[in-house]
Amino acid sequence: MKKRIAIVMGSFHKELVERMLAEAKTAALAAGLEVISEVWVPGSLEKPLALKRLLLRSDIDGAVVLGIIERGETKHGLVMGEVVMQAIIDLQLQTMKPVGVGILGPEILPEQIEPRLLPYARAAAEALAVMLK
Fold first, then answer.
1. 14-21 — which CB contacts under 8 Å span 24+ positions?
2. What is the per-residue pLDDT for 51?
3. Which of 11, 71, 74, 91 has the fewest Cβ atoms nearer than 10 Å?
4. Which of the four pLDDT bands, split at 50, 70 and 90, describes residue 76?
């Protein structure tokens, strides 16, 4: 039976993240996973709640989280990235369901985004597939 997964994405960089979504879905399909839910949220701080709602569902075996946290003029992105990653790790341990993380950053520079965009999305889906075995 195929493992059923969800994908949570931040819409702050929507055009770029849509490309990540397509890559993650392709990788998930190639790994034998079925994407049954896609959820867009405003940004990274909203991802943990959306993720928790999905991981608590009995029809979801795991999830992928995608997005971008760019470097800003302050340390806001760095702090945000740290708390979001900690929340994602905590949710994995609480629910015992794996999460593949494809969040670029924190503190990624604009010129660093393009070469990492698709590889990070693909790696997140592939990591999830490994953890679901």
1. 14/40, 16/68, 16/113, 16/117, 17/66, 17/67, 17/68, 19/117, 19/118, 19/121, 20/66, 20/67, 20/102, 20/117, 20/118, 20/120, 20/121, 21/66, 21/121
2. 98
3. 74
4. confident
